[in-house]
Write a structure and sequence with these properties.
Number of domains: 2
Structural class: alpha/beta
CATH class of the largest domain: Alpha Beta
Order of helices and strands: EHEEHEHEHEHHEEHHEH
Number of helices: 9
Radius of gyration: 20 Å
CATH topology of the largest domain: Rossmann fold
C-alpha cells in the first residue's frame, strides 16, 4: 500500500516550521534565522520512502498586519492550507491559546484534518510537555497531538508515522529523487536574503528583497543578484564601510550556494533602492510576492 498527500505546516511566525522541514528532508531547502517572518513564500519539500510520498508545504507565519507584503505572505500560507490534505498546526512553548486563535480559526475555516505539533519541546521540563499540549489544543478537534524538537529530533519519527496514517492511498506526485520544486535560482536568492537577515539589524531585513538578474551555468556558476531595499540610508548599511557588509553577505551566501549547487560559484552583488517596494503592489508582483 502506497500513500501520498500534501501536508501544510502552519503556525505563527518563528515557531520552527522551516527547521522542521529541513530536519525531515535532511537538507536545507528553507532558510532559517532567529528573526520572525523569515519565510515569505510557500516552500515545497518532498519526503519519499518505499511506502509513501509526503509533500510538505512550509508557509509564512500567520499574523495580522496592514502591510501589503505581510498580507501577501499570509495569503500564500492560506493558499497552501487550501491545497493540503492535512494540516500540521505548529506551536512553541511561549504560545498561548490567544496567540494561536487566528491560526486555529483559519484551519477551522478550511475544514482540514489537523495534527497539533508542539515544537521546541526541549525548552520544557519533560513533566510540563503534556500539560502544555493540553493547555493549547482544546480549541480544535485535532486527530493527533505530539511534541517534537527539531534540535534533538525527539519524537519526530512518531509524528511521521501518524502523518502517514492520516494520508490517503495514492501514487507519488513527484520523482523519488526530487526533494523540492523550487528552482536553483530561487534557492540562491533565498540564501542571500538569509544572510541579510542574519547579518543586519533593525528594519533592514524586513526592507530587503533579493532578485537574481543573471544565473549562468558552467564549470563555474556565475550569479549576479540585486538586494532591493527601500531607503538610501539602508543602502549604506547593507554595503557597509568600504563594502565590508556586502562582502560578508556575499561570502557567506557563496559558500552555501557552492554546497547547494555542488560547484564553484562566482557571485556578484549589487544594492538598489526601490522605494517602498513592500507597499507597492506592482513591485511585490515583480519580485514574486504577489
Amino acid at each position: 500500500m502506497f500513500k501520498s498527500g500534501f501536508v501544510v505546516i502552519i503556525g505563527r511566525p518563528n515557531v520552527g516550521k522551516s527547521s522542521f522541514l529541513n530536519k525531515i528532508l535532511e537538507e536545507k531547502i528553507a532558510i532559517i534565522t532567529p528573526k520572525p517572518q523569515t519565510t515569505r513564500d510557500r516552500i515545497l519539500g518532498i519526503y519519499t520512502k518505499d511506502d509513501c510520498q509526503i509533500v510538505f508545504l512550509d508557509t509564512p507565519g500567520i499574523h495580522i498586519s496592514d502591510k501589503e507584503l505581510n498580507k501577501c505572505m499570509v495569503d500564500k500560507a492560506l493558499s497552501a492550507l487550501f491545497d493540503a490534505d492535512l494540516a500540521l498546526v505548529m506551536a512553541e512553548p511561549s504560545d498561548t491559546v490567544e496567540s494561536l486563535s487566528t491560526v486555529f480559526e483559519h484551519v477551522k475555516d478550511f475544514r482540514k484534518k489537523a495534527i497539533f505539533v508542539l515544537n521546541k519541546s526541549d525548552l520544557l521540563p519533560e513533566e510540563m510537555v503534556l500539560k502544555k499540549i493540553d493547555e493549547l489544543s482544546p480549541a480544535m478537534n485535532f486527530i493527533y497531538k505530539q511534541a517534537v524538537s527539531c534540535i534533538t529530533g525527539d519524537r519526530i519519527d512518531i509524528l511521521m508515522n501518524e502523518i502517514y496514517k492520516a494520508l490517503p492511498e495514492g501514487p507519488p506526485f513527484f520523482p523519488d529523487d526530487m526533494i523540492t520544486d523550487a528552482s536553483e535560482r530561487f534557492l540562491c536568492a533565498e540564501l542571500i536574503r538569509e544572510k541579510v537577515f542574519l547579518l543586519t539589524q533593525k528594519e533592514i531585513p524586513y526592507s530587503a528583497a533579493v532578485e537574481i538578474e543573471q544565473f549562468k551555468e558552467g564549470e563555474i556558476a556565475r550569479i549576479s543578484a540585486v538586494i532591493h531595499i527601500e531607503r538610501s540610508s539602508q543602502k549604506a548599511i547593507v554595503i557597509g564601510k568600504g563594502g565590508s557588509m556586502l562582502k560578508k553577505i556575499g561570502t557567506q551566501a557563496r559558500i552555501d550556494m557552492e554546497r547547494l549547487l555542488g560547484q564553484k560559484v562566482f557571485l556578484e552583488l549589487f544594492v538598489r533602492v526601490t522605494e517602498n517596494w513592500t507597499k507597492n503592489p506592482r513591485e511585490l508582483k515583480r519580485l514574486g510576492y504577489k
